[in-house]
Each structure stands twice: as C-alpha cells, then as structure tokens.
Design a protein that fits this description.
Arylsulfatase, C-terminal domain; about 450 residues
Length: about 450
Amino acid sequence: MTSVIFIVVDSLRQDHVSFYGWEGCPVETPNIDALARESVAFENMYPEALPTIPVRTQWMTGQRTLPFRPWQPLTPEDRTVADILSEEGYLTALFTDCYHFFKPGYNLHRSFRVWRWIRGQEYDPYRSGPLRRFKLEDFVKDSYTEEWKRLVETCLVNLESIRRTEDYYCARLVREAIGWLEENRGRKPVLLWVDSFDPHEPWFPPPEFDRYTDPNWTGKRPILPPGGPASAHFSEDEIRYIRGLYAGEVAYVDHYIGQLLEALKEYGYYDDSIIVLSADHGHPLADHGKFLKGGDRMYSELLKVPFMIRFPGGEYGGRKLDALAQFHDVLPTILDAIGLGKDTEAMHGKSLMPLIRGEEESVRDAIITGYYGAPDRCIRDKTWSYIRRPEGEPDELYNLVEDPRERKNLIDEYPEEAARLASKFGSLYAVRGKEIKGIQGKYEVEGSAGA
C-alpha cells in the first residue's frame, strides 16, 4: 500500500507562493515551489465551508459541511481518513500546533495511533503570568478594544519562551515529525499528517526571516491586527508593515517545510508516497479594506489556496490544472489513488483522479463557499465570482480573468452572469437531499435546480 503524507500550512495565500506566478508576489517560497514542480498543482482548489475546523472536517471525511454543519467536533458517525487507513493496516500519526484540534470536547486527533500537540499558538491558554520580555504597549494601539488587547497579551505570554529560531512553533512541529520519521524508518504504509498553524496570526516571524518589513521601523509592532476596517487603526505605512510580517511568516514556514521534505527523502518516504500540501484558506491583509478572516470577505485573498499532490515517482508531475475542485474532493481522490475507491461511495466529494490522469477536463462547473451562519456566499466558476451579500447591501460580481484582484464590481454591467451563477445555488446542495432556499439578494432563485 502507498503511504500518504498530508502537509497543512494554515492561512497561506496562493498569491504568496511564488510557484503560482501572481503579479506582485512579495516573497519567495523555494521549498514549496520545488514540491509543486514535481506535483499536480491545482489553481482553483477552494474551501467549501470556512475556516479551520470545518475545512479539516472536509479533508478528513470527504463530506460537505456548508450550510448544514457548524464549527464542531467530529461526530460518532464521521468516518475519517485515519479511521479508513487504520483499518487497512496503516500506521497513523498526527503532528500539529493547531490548538483548535484539542479544545475541550474536540477530537480531530481521533483514530490517529500517534499524535503530538505543540502548545502555545494564538490564544491557547498554555502559559500564565505577567509579561517580562515584552511590553504590551509596543504591540497594541490605543484604538484597540480592551478585549483585543487582552488577546494580544495572551499571544505575547505564550511567545515569551521563544528565544531562538528553533523555539518557534513551526520549527518545533517539524522537529517532532522528523523525529517520528527517524524512529519509524522503514515502517510502511503510514498516514502522516503534519498540520502547521503558521503563517496564521499572530505574525511574529523569527528575526532571520523578518526581512520584508522596514528595517528602520520605530512604530508599534501590530502582530495581531483587529478585524474590521483597517483604516480605523492603521496608517498606510502600518498596513505595509503588517503585510511584511505576514510575508516573513510565509518565508519561515517555507524553510521548515523544506526540512520536512528533506527528512521524507532521507528516511525513504518521499518518492513512494502520495504527498499532499494545502492551505486551509488564505488571509485578508486589508486588500479590500479589512484584516483577518470573516464571512464578509469572500475574495481571492481568503479563498484561493496553494494545493498540490505529488504522486510516487513524480507520476503526473509538472502540471498545473485549472479545473474547479473543493476540499471535500481531496479524500476521495487519495483513496481512489491508493485503490480504496470503494470507501468513497458515501462521500459528497468526487475523485479528481480522472482530471489528473487526463481522462476528463472538469468534475465541477462551479463551486460555492462561505461561513456557516453568515449571510454571504460566494459562487464561482473559472471566469466569474458572484458574492451574495446580506439583504440591503449590494451584491458583487468580478471577472477573475481580467481582474484577479477583484477591484471592479461588475454586478450592474453583467446581470446575466450573476443570475447564471445564482441559479446553481440549489443544485450544489441537492446531493444532500435537503431543501435549501436559493440565493437571497438581487438575483434570488427559489428552490433547487437539481443535482
């Protein structure tokens, strides 16, 4: 049986991976690029429901979560990749610094034989006590709410123990995973899931990677900017500085992804495994006026991710596919590739292997994405992106070919394209057998259009 290696890079924007060739990409990612060149790389892979836990549920189960399922633990009925491969004799291991896996009542590590949790990311209640190395006032602005200042302080308390580059979370995560590879050298097949929370905020790159900000900066260091309008808190110089912090985080994570890939080679897993690398979503950096994720930010900076699959021996490698796909397609694809397609029959996702083998050009003609409980929905094909906004707010339509940064709203110029995409809303959910009311907004469509 073929081993499966799944590498997650949280909050990594596609336009910050140099392989994808976005104009103005501010950072080089040589290690991810090298993997991409040997892989089938997808240009239009999208999350279905956002953010962190819903995405991982899609990956692990092959099931849709939008709009039926909120951010929640796995249920007893969920059959995950770890369940399936454990039954097939795989040695399963999970390494992550994503503390959401382990919040009280959460169980995404279920059925992994081995799991390790690197503590301290974001608001993980890992450490307590007063700040000693850092001064809170250096990292917050007067305009922050008291609650937001407390969140920044929680992050800083956790960061106080970091002294050297190897103390940073991604470095520790990769070191743990490499140690497991060394200990289990030669044991096959394995499912190894390495899930890095960086470059998720707070953005606090190691000094050697903090090379995208102004070296003469003397202002605040806003490693955790509040969501909402950036102009309420930051000048243009400060926005550029924050974007530089994020770019430094991307460079730092790419470096350690390179170390992990080298270890896979050294211990004999690289060339005979299926290796998947993906982000769960991107991250708004005030591109449309706001920082942080949110249900009202359904633009490419949040939705477009790097996604690539390297097959054993580099088979099918060196190709970019522009076909539309979503995260609940990933598990059916992996299982199909390793000869377990029978286990995908109850999944909502579709195997992408016909695309990868060149037998078909598409498996979807549109995708839909959004947040559970949020009114905004985004429906896209390869040319157009239609954003349904709450009642009373104008809907949006963008031409992704001519305007990939989504600067010009064409909703009034091309109403027929908005109506066409809106008409797909019901059909995208008909597979679930539930009656879902259609798009609410300027181009409302009642009922379902079929499967």
